[in-house]
Amino acid sequence: MKMKETLQLGKTAFPMRGNLPIRELEWQKEWEEKDIYGQRQELNKEKPTFILHDGPPYANGNIHIGHALNKISKDIIVRYKSMTGFRSPYVPGWDTHGLPIEQALTNKGVKRKEMSIAKFRELCEEYAWEQINKQREDFKRLGVAGEWDNPYVTLTPDYEEAQIRVFGKMAEKGYIYKGLKPIYWSPSSESALAEAEIEYKDVKSASIYVAFKIIDGKGLIDDSTSLIIWTTTPWTIPSNLGIAVHPNYDYVTILADGKKFVLAKDLVDTVTQEIGWESVEIISELKGKDMELMTAQHPMYDRTSLVILGDHVTLEAGTGLVHTAPGHGDDDYIVGQKYKLGVLSPVDDKGCFTDEAPGLEGVFYDKGNKLITEILKEKGALLKLDFFMHSYPHDWRTKKPVIFRATPQWFASIDLFREQILEAIKNVNWTQQWGMQRLYNMVRDRGDWVISRQRAWGVPLPIFYGENNEPIITPETIDHVAQLFGEFGSNVWFEREAIDLLPAGFTHPSSPNNIFTKETDIMDVWFDSGSSHEAVLKERENLTFPADMYLEGSDQYRGWFNSSITTSIAINGEAPYKTVLSQGMVLDGDGRKMSKSLGNTMSPDKVTKQMGADIIRLWVSSVDSQADVRVSDEILKQVSEVYRKIRNTMRFLLANTSDFQVSEHAINFEDLRSVDKYMMVRLNQLVEKVEMNYEKYEFPAIYQLINNFCTVDLSQFYLDFAKDVVYIESENSYDRRAMQTVFYEVLVKLTKLLTPILPHTAEEIWSLLGEDEEYVQLAEMPHVETYENEIELMDMWNAFMDIRQDVQKALEEARNDKKIGKSFEAKLTIYPTAPTRDLFVSLNSNIEQLLIVSDLNIAGDKTEAPETALQFDSLAIVVEHAHGETCERCRAIKEDVGANTIAPSLCERCSEIVSKNFPEALVPEQ
User: Fold this and answer.
1) CA 829, CA 522: separation in Å to the nearest integer?
2) Sheet strands (E) in 671-792
3) Which residue among 379, 409, 665, 827 is least enclosed by CB atoms within 10 Å?
4) pLDDT at position 53, please?
5) CA distance 813 to 871
6) Which phi and psi (to 5°) does residue 654 adopt?
7) Distances (CA, A) of 194 to 94, 438, 912
């Protein structure tokens, strides 16, 4: 028998390399076959609920790394809650209506105008399901558990029925109305947009000063004078119906280079510089309020512009006289209503001028900028043309500029319940307090919600019109349409005539001949997803309203967080969520936004095939996703190193508990050695801190805690000296079984703590343990224990750790001086202070073994140390090379090697172990 065979070198089926891309698929197949998610729900069915309501991603294209961050974060929370006493089902969702799918079909060659709307919508639905199925597999590959075979989808009949009922309740309360107001209009999408669909980009725009010649100056300004306006949207000049001044500002008539103009007194110097006048003289002065109802000649057309008063006028830029086009601006519209100016918006759906702008018919508005400035110049009305860079609203889908355009639209009146929304926002638990303020300000400052869209693919507005064009929205019609949608889906709206969509025998005063028409606009997609609290939370028996949590990207303050609370307050009077947690954007390693054009995007599919889903999941846990986060190949390599450390730590523990049975070999806490108790308390502290951070959704803290525990507490200390016990001692020695008791406890508890983050790896570890639950996902999180005298124990061992640090410094210095190589070659002579000597006694431990040296001598008091000793606060240390020979078995250098003549290569300790347990190893091989 070889001497190596007398060592207790453990073995394990848990490989050093995870081979995650292959093994994860095997685990996922097994979980699906065994319905582990369903088993977990069954275990939790009588427990209190925690519902994380999924914000639906848009069903178009493969998932990106931002999707992975979001879905994995949700999965971590749901898995943790499921293992801590909560019934926490997860119902994934998809948002399916809207322009991107229409565009995707167009890009594939579908000719929308050559088929019926109903047929086109059928193709949209087919495409949406293709995308859902693709994304579903992507999400499942990340190890996200949930009701994948029964998700909620905004195009299903049951969902659309619930959405119609949300609309109906809002209409019944008087919140829905039709109006001609300027709204964000996207020529590139040919549709109205909500504020949530706007993003800002820097653009170069024209800036012009224009003169409007006075017609009637009320005797205060003569008709040889012109009013000056300034605008950055020359294309809106044809729509001008008025000029606004502030009632309290001072205005002056000036003589500038021989011509008379009116502008705000405080802006004379600025405008003089901008236009480049050489000679300027103030002739007269008057208040803005005195100019009310004066008239001026429109610079392009044969009509007048009315001077009106407006508090929105400022002196920050321009002339103090504001060009007013009620068809193209919010403030313009509001002040125009007061003066009954009317609404002129001579631009069509594609952004081209209509015949209401003579001379510009068919011209795209942006090209109109140049034509209009040329016309103004010809007529002598253009005083200055310049260009400047500024932030301008764009369609967030097409990335093209939008315009303000007055069109007949359907609105939800936010004003009627704005205060209720604001009050509810204050009562939500915002994980980031700034999130509360952000949404609060958005709701406080927003206008009414434009809910109509001029598209085909979406949920139709369930509105009928009488013969006199009066809108018909009654509880009876809403209920009937909702039932039809629930039975046939919303495509029935486009497949049937209006009369066939109304209840049998329906009559209305607006239609004496029983002739009805129907609305052709669809609802804003934010109304779709914003109705999920009714369509999902209230409709599914296993869910509850309000949800415990909404977790989405920070762009959803203007999106789903906003639309959901709006509709919920409107019909329920309470927020649909108790807690909101938002996440930042995923950037590349250099902090740049990811985009295909930059070539810096990262595919989760590619990462899972190369490294495995658990690496992505560990990355998710490592980043503070409440702010913007970074990811790159290099960052994932760093994360995989941490994974390797965790895996190898668990592998060592598994290998060295392969001959350990809890029922036979475990030692009670009170009977453990002091150092083992210390490690049990450290483990208990880890459990407490990790679970506390799971509760606070502080995943990076968990990542750091577990990494530090594996590295510092285990690898660099407990497992480092453990080899001298678990390898060297006899199989059933007390010291070895004591350490194995701790090893096994660490394995069980750490595996449970890791499960929400690394479910595949945790399950692989669990399969090699002897626990009652077949799968770790069906186990509960470890409880925080209370140990007797643990404070005193920790104080004692913390003091030892400080001393150990001093010893390591002394050993490092001896290594640098070539006195020793490894620490096992050292002999230490320690001269302690009295408290340190008492500490060594109270530890009741093999200090030599703990410090991993071959010989230790506790000598006299620190004051007796020789001059060559290294001095520290609580001890002095002399390091020298250990005397004796190296033991063949334990590798310690001992003077008693060969003391037992039948074991000439062994130290006395090993000789005793081998003689007793492996006598055949002492018989020379023939």
Assistant:
1) 85
2) none
3) 379
4) 97
5) 12
6) -65, -45
7) 20, 17, 83
| Long-range contacts, stretch 837-842, CB < 8 angstroms, 24+ apart | 837/861, 839/796, 839/799, 839/800, 839/803, 842/796
If pLDDT is split at 50, 70 and 90, which confidence band does 598 have? confident
Closest CA to 459 of 693, 105, 124, 2: 124
Rg, C-alpha atoms of the chain: 38
Q: Residue 129 corresponds to which tokens in the numbers above? A: 């399901």
CB atoms under 10 Å from CB of 798, counted, come to 10
> Which amino acid is present at 136?
R
Mean pLDDT of 355-374: 90
Task: Give tens-digit pLDDT for 156-165.
Answer: 999 999 999 9
- Other Cβ atoms closer than 10 A to 829: 18
Six token digits for residue 854? 């071959």
My answer on whether omega of the bond before 512 falls inside 30° of 0, hence cis, is no
Distance of CA 628 to the CA centre of its chain: 9
d(CA 95, CA 102): 14
Cα 878 from chain centroid (whole Å)? 56
- Give dist(CA 461, CA 670) in Å, integer: 71
662: its two tokens:
């809890």
Sign of CA dihedral 325, 327, 333, 339: positive
Which residues are within 8 A (CB) of 314 and not within 5 positions of it... i.e. 6 or more apart? 246
Indicate the pLDDT class of residue 368, thresholds 50, 70 and 90: confident
- DSSP-assigned beta bridge partners for residue 78: none
Q: How many helices and strands in the chain, by DSSP H and E?
A: 30, 33
Report the half-sphere exposure of 768 (CA within 13 A, side-chain side). 23
Indicate whether 500 pLDDT > 90: yes
Q: Are strands 464-465 and 517-518 parallel, antiparallel or unpaired?
A: antiparallel
User: 818: exposed, middle or buried (C-beta count within 10 Å: 0-12, 13-18, 19+)?
Assistant: exposed
141-162: burial string, b at 16+ Cβ within 10 Å, e else:
bbbbbbbbeebbbbbbbbbbbb
| Joined tokens for residue 267 | 């802006």
Q: Return the sign of the alpha-carbon dihedral for residues 429, 431, 433, 435.
A: negative
CA angle 629, 634, 635 (to 5 degrees): 30
CA of 404: how far to CAs of 114, 333, 670, in Å?
A: 31, 11, 76
Closest CA to 296 of 218, 227, 236: 227
Asked whether 73 and 149 are in contact (CB, 8 A), the reply is no
**Host H or E run for residue 209:** strand 198-216
| Residue showing tokens 């190369």 | 610
Is the separation of the CB atoms in 636 and 615 below 8 Å?
yes
347 in Cβ contact with 359 (< 8 Å): no
Count of residues in the chain: 926
Return all residues near 892 (Cβ < 8 A) that are at least 6 apart.
724, 824, 854, 882, 886, 907
Distance, CA of 323 to CA of 832 (rounded, Å): 88
pLDDT digits (tens, 9 = 90+) for 254-308: 999 989 999 999 899 899 988 888 888 899 999 999 999 999 999 999 999 999 9
What the block records as the tokens of 173 is 């309360």
- Among 743, 664, 639, 542, smallest CA distance to 44 is for 542
The whole-model pTM stands at: 0.84
